[in-house]
Each structure stands twice: as structure tokens, then as C-alpha cells.
Design brief:
The structure holds 2 protein chains of 2 kinds.
Chain A: H1 2-16, H2 20-28, H3 36-44, H4 51-67
Chain B: H1 5-15, H2 23-37, E1 43-50, E2 53-59, H3 63-74, H4 78-85, E3 89-91, H5 101-109, E4 114-122, E5 125-134, H6 142-196, H7 200-214, H8 218-239
Antiparallel strand pairs in B: 1-2, 1-5, 3-4, 4-5
Helix pairs in contact in B: 1-2, 1-6, 2-6, 3-5, 6-7, 6-8, 7-8
Classes of the chains: A mainly alpha, B alpha+beta.
Chain lengths: 83, 244
Amino acid sequence: MSEESATEIAAGLRLAGWSPAELWWAALGIGGAFTVLNVELIILGTVAATANEHDILAAALNDHFTAHGQDHPVRYWDDLPSR
Amino acid sequence: MADSPFTASLAALSRFFVGDATLEDTLERVAGLAVEAIEPADMAGVTMVVEGARRTPVFTHASAPEIDEAQYATGKGPCVQALESGQVTEIASTREPGRFEEFRAAAAAHGVLSTLSFPLLVDQRAVGALNLYSRRERAFRDAERSDGAMFAAHAAIVLANAHAYWDARELSAGLGEAMKNRAVIEQAKGMLMAAEGLDEDEAFAVLVRASQRQNVKLSVVASRLMEGAVVRRRAQRQKAPPRQ
């Protein structure tokens, strides 16, 4: 699950063209309590995100995509294939 | 004893308070002082990487960016070299053949016959390049090379301070905006927790699902939820019989 979550967030990050710091910033604005290092480690799969952490990062990315006319391309925890 | 133009310019640079001006104003002031400080220089420009591309965002004469375009297009020229290598790069005569052929031709066509480019080094890393252009061949001697290096060192500090100042300003402005959205999301989560008996993560998941269903940002869902709750509560209060 952790690898799947990391892959999903990393793909969203690439799609957005964001750096981990930009994702951290966006997550902060919606209730995230990460450090930039936390975000980097989650993306690398070194640290496993909890369901809530995954959803915060996914929501931060999806907020960006929503503002650019896309409909939530980053899957939330419950929508990951192995769930 | 009167200050030399170099000493006066250096002093002006050291007194420069970056908070008084925008980043662009700061760079313009640096370029202007460079021409005053290094006498053979007829014009100056600052090369920087702007949004991933090399640019001359500030200059003291309109010819400077036109000349620089020749090197940005080919990726070869003294300013690019100074920026990338961190080394001082000089062309004694643009009329003579040598490295940076396209740049030499463009400079000579604009009447610029010698150039001297200094890296603007911060923590051993070039954050830009200060480019001095003269209408004379072999205009820059050892004294100008030495003065120019000292001026560039001071200019780099001003530039680093300006960057730090404006980064902090942007961070502060961004933080204010982020916290505004965060507050409404936290309020909506609190309301869901109280009304539905959810824990914090479950309340967030409810907001996320609503955001996905409506294809709107999370803060919009939270705002709508809070506005709806306020309207309902006010309506309930109006319907309720007055207290005895």
C-alpha cells in the first residue's frame, strides 16, 4: 500500500510539475502538518503515508488540477487499486 | 579628499537597503552603479536565470539585452560563461576572431568593442553575472579587472539579500493566503466532527469526497458547508419561540 500510495502521489507531482516543497506548501494550506522532508520521503516511498496523509497530499494536488480544469486525477486512499 | 567614482559607488552599494526597492529596482541600481564605478564601461547588464531561461532582466542601455540575445540563443558567450563557470570572462576586442563568434559579431554591430563579465557568487555558486560593455577596444586593464571583481562581490551580497528579502515577503504573503483556506477547512472539519460524531480524519475524508463529487476545491466545499450551516442555524433561531 505504501509503494502504491508513493507512486500515486509521485505521478501527481510530475503531472502538476511541482517540487516536493510546492506540494508541502499546498498541503499546508488544506490542513497538512508535514515537513518538506516528510513529503519527500513519502514520495520516495521511504516513509509510508497513513490514509489521511495520503488523502491530504492527493487533495492538495487535486485542488491544483481542479483549478486547471481537470477532475481529480490523483486517486484517494480508498480508490487505490489494492483497496 | 574626494571619493573616487569606484569608492563612491561601492559605498552606495553597501548602503543600499533592499527593502526600499523591488528586486528589479535593486538590480537596476547595481547595474547603474557598476557603470559609474568602472570608468571604461559604457553600459552594463545583469544576466540571470529567469523562469528557467537565461535573460538580461536589467540593463543600463537598450543595446545590452540585444547583444546578450546572441549568446542566449547559442548558449555561448562571456556572460553565459561567467554564470556557468563562475569565472571572470573577458573579450578584449570583439573585432578580432576568437571564442563566442556570434556574440562578438552582435556586440561589434552595436558598437561594443570590449566586454568584461563577472560571476555574482553567493556561497561559491553563481546566481547571476554582471556584464560590462565598452565602446573601446581593450578598455579594461588590471585595475578595472580588480575593481570590477570587488564590485561584483559586493553586488552579489546585495543581490542575495534582495532575493532573501523578497522570498521572505512572498512566503509571508503566501502563508497568509494558505492559512485563510486552512482555517475554513478546519472549521468545516470541526463542524462535521461535532454534528456527525466523526474523528478528524473521517471529517477530512467527507470533505475530500464532496470535493471530488462536486469537482471543486476543498476550501470551496468547506466554505459552502459552513455557509449552509450558518443559514440553517439562523433559520432555526427565527422559527424558535422567543424565550420566556
